[in-house]
């Protein structure tokens, strides 16, 4: 049982640097100028010619974004495993808010990058493609998913940073680095792979350091007899 728990916790730990790598890959491969909310015809007509030239790249970027957002859901849960007692309520809130927000982000990304690539590659006029994209974004569900995603991606990292700060399980500078690095990563535009890597470096470093902490915590699983469930040793 202890070995199974350690293995599970280490798999969670690996999700953090993998998520950071997917985030960087997604933003780094996204064609410059296409990471916009297509809420007006003017915006749609501006991005469609770019998308038409790079629709395969958009498909790749969109797919990496979907995987990165799935990784965010797992990562929030993994980070929460570090937190005991102090900060646990904030951590649970961050997991719920971050998970729901990431799911909404998956839907919003379909409305954006993937649909944009499909519309650009389809043999229809730009006017028709623009109307379709704008209608999708401005629909009730489209706006709802986009709004929830925008709210949660800003608030959830801050709440988790507060939880890490209060828990005392990591240095306080690491809690700050995680919150600020995550916020900076989410605001990073598609400006070329070199600048994307530079701007997302604090986020990637925080995720790597937290991954190491979670991995090491797996070694603190307390030994138990066959008649009892395993428990985690407290720090």
Low-confidence stretches: 225-235
Amount of beta strand: under 5%
Pattern of helices and strands: HHHHHHHHEE
Task: Please summarize the sheet with the most strands.
Answer: 2 strands, antiparallel
Question: Helix count?
Answer: 8
Residue share in helices? over 70%
- Overall geometry: elongated
- Spatial strand arrangement across the major sheet: 1-2
Report the count of strand segments: 2
Averaging pLDDT over every residue, what do you get?
86
Q: What does the model show?
A:
The chain has one domain (2-221). It has a two-stranded antiparallel sheet with strand order 1-2. It is mainly α and 235 residues long. 77% of the residues lie in helices and 2% in strands. The protein is built from eight helices and two strands; from the N terminus they run ααααααααββ. The model is unreliable at 225-235 (pLDDT under 50). The two termini are 21 Å apart.
